[in-house]
């Protein structure tokens, strides 16, 4: 029996979970080369064969696009034209892993440079295939996220979170990562406990663990007494959640009865299946980038229209704010976001990128304008820094409306608002007075004000949205909006944290957008604020 090991990290998503652990291997693990070309060649051929076998077994349960992607990878791994350069580098004395990496990386560049969206999107499949063989070469198992387990790794991309099966619960424990990263936001919105910044987590035969998202604790191989203690705490947490749940059906109000508009942040349409629109006042942020999956073809106008329509129909007459594509930063899409930017959070991200890729932007605006006839839609633009970006967006939207009218398509021009998440706008909101509304993105505002990357563990403690500098900017935007009749809300993650609510109300905000998992607890906390 293993001895318990307690590791302390940073809380990223509340909740207690006990279960089996599943290590997510990374391709970068160390491999000792034999120095003998014959041995390296044998290791290489074996790794390729094992990778093909692994892909083939995944094919048995895959359908549609996933099956197509697996078939594409298998075909490549069975193609001598791809394997030959690696084999010849091995014959020249290169270690198998380096030879393979060099060969596939050269192919990846070719795919990334293609003019065709389809081929550019396929570059991610090549990377996946490359890493699968590398993992086999270094003796690691595949990257599969086991359902109902605590997933342990260095960091996980948002795509892995979205692909994992959370129907049996589960949790995430990361040696690196940050509470402000997008995967942490997803975990909070689904109520999946998560701890980041745990440092090295050595597998060492541990098979089970307890995680406490609120305190940032991971206990590997808990003993009987620890299991009893954590099961008691889980019971208390469940009781607290039941008390909070009494608020779920009621409108959000402060202690004096005054009304707070409480909206929700959503990422994918499947989230709506578990949500009752009666529990909130609408959708304050729909992150549309989650329709755009790395390695998958870009969603076309019809697919986007259907998705947006689904949100509007779910909400009925309540407002639905859909944000235009906010990729770049920690949300790369192969073939769409630039590769090799030295500082992606300060680079071509959000509106900066969509204005460069007018084809992608117009497709999205057309789908939005068509969907707008089905409800109370608002369009929100991310990462706005200067007024000309909003003006250009408005011009494109006018063009889209004129085209749709000419083509006889039913459409409506929704209000056009902006995220306030770049300090330039929060300091001087009057320069963006043309916006129909402001929604404060406290996640990015904090990152840019505090100069602390939201996905960087080492500076996570600086990432404090309650720092007076951030709060002063929030207050500034709220005041400007009040004095000039521009509606202001806040959709960053701080609104989902009861401990920040008093400061947000004091800053003058009366509209908040929170993660669905926190609706009850936020309503309960607001009712205590006088
Ligand atoms: C924000 O920056 O606060 C925000 C809501 O947007 P995202 O977290 O998607 O960048
Ligand atoms: Mg943001």
Walk me through the structure.
There is one protein chain. The protein has 530 residues and is an alpha/beta fold. The chain has three domains: 5-24 and 144-229, Phosphohistidine domain (Glucose Oxidase, domain 1), CATH 3.50.30; 37-138, PtsI, HPr-binding domain (Enzyme I, Chain A, domain 2), CATH 1.10.274.10; 243-526, Phosphoenolpyruvate-binding domains (TIM Barrel). The chain has helices at residues 37-59, 64-77, 80-91, 96-112, 117-137, 158-163, 182-190, 224-245, 301-315, 351-356, 358-371, 387-406, 423-427, 442-450, 468-483, 498-506, 519-526; strands at residues 5-8, 10-13, 16-23, 150-153, 171-174, 194-196, 208-212, 217-220, 261-266, 283-287, 319-323, 376-381, 416-420, 438-440, 488-490, 511-514. The chain has an eight-stranded mixed β-sheet with strand order 1-8-7-3-4-5-6-2. An eight-stranded parallel β-sheet has the order 15-14-13-12-11-10-9-16. Helix 1 packs across helix 5 (117-137), helix 4 (96-112) runs antiparallel to helix 5 and helix 11 packs across helix 12. The longest helix has 23 residues, at 37-59. Phosphoenolpyruvate binds next to strand 10 and helix 14.
